[in-house]
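FAQ: What does a ligand-bound record look like?

Like this one, built around 3-methyl-2-oxobutanoic acid:
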Amino acid sequence: MAASKKITTPALRARKVSGPKLAVVTAYDATFARLFDQAGVDVLLVGDSLGMVVQGQPTTLGVTLDDMIYHGRAVVRGTERAHVVGDLPFMSYQTGVLPALEAAGRMVKEAGYEAVKLEGGVLYADHVRRIVDAGIPVMGHVGLLPQSIHTLGGFKVQGRDAEAAERIIADAQALEQAGAYAIVVEAVPAELAERVTRAVSVPTIGIGAGPHCDGQVLVGYDLLGMYSELRPKFVKRFAEAGEVVVNAARAYVAEVQSGAFPTLAHAFGAPRELPPAPEHTGAKAVVPGTPPTYGPASDES
Ligand code: KIV
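The answer part, i.e. the structure of the complex:
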């Protein structure tokens, strides 16, 4: 049997010491998963950010466990090498240890996730321990917790005063002790993220947390530059894919309208025996044998 190319949680943990830093990206469908996987991304996170970037909701709170399972299946199908982790959505684990375990179990059994992520530290240590004991790796998440957006009062930098900073460090340590294999550190000052990184022996994965974490995570659509109106300070746009998409779609519209697309080069050959030309009645003629929209890609099939 060929050796698996899959990146495992022990391999991810080892990177804290050996490097290189972990490159994590969110993905929500098979096509982007395949592209990011080909690019060498280590971890694909099916974030509940899908509520905002895919579903167009203002927060992540409306995302359901079924949504996470649906998108997880697609990402898992598109991925060969990267480790695939999915967010436990709001209210799938906050109600207790047992619901948390059941939700994590569904994520693994029904979608094929290799790990789950949940937000919070000390308060959720028992939940993490129980899920890990069942054989499901857990990624923690401290700092800005988008599922607590209404308590926090917005998407704001966390841990700015000493007491809040100490709480975030304690949260990360509680997650490590409960068995988390990695911890996302979101929207905290760079110096605090560095302290968190030193305080735990598992990799920290920063977003809006400066350069000192053991890895970085970005929302895939952010790094691709899909939005012209939204430019958070912590995001680096590695492409202007939004512009590429709009320009390509504009060119398509123009060519369809002018008749420049399609040409005969994009058409299928004639049937072996052409039926007699229909009388012109004003209605659109349908030639028998015309391929359906999603029909064969070549004349050969
Ligand atoms: O939901 C998400 O995409 C996340 C990352 C941004 C860390 O939790």
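Follow-up question: can I read anything off the structure? Yes, for example: The chain has eleven helices and eight strands.
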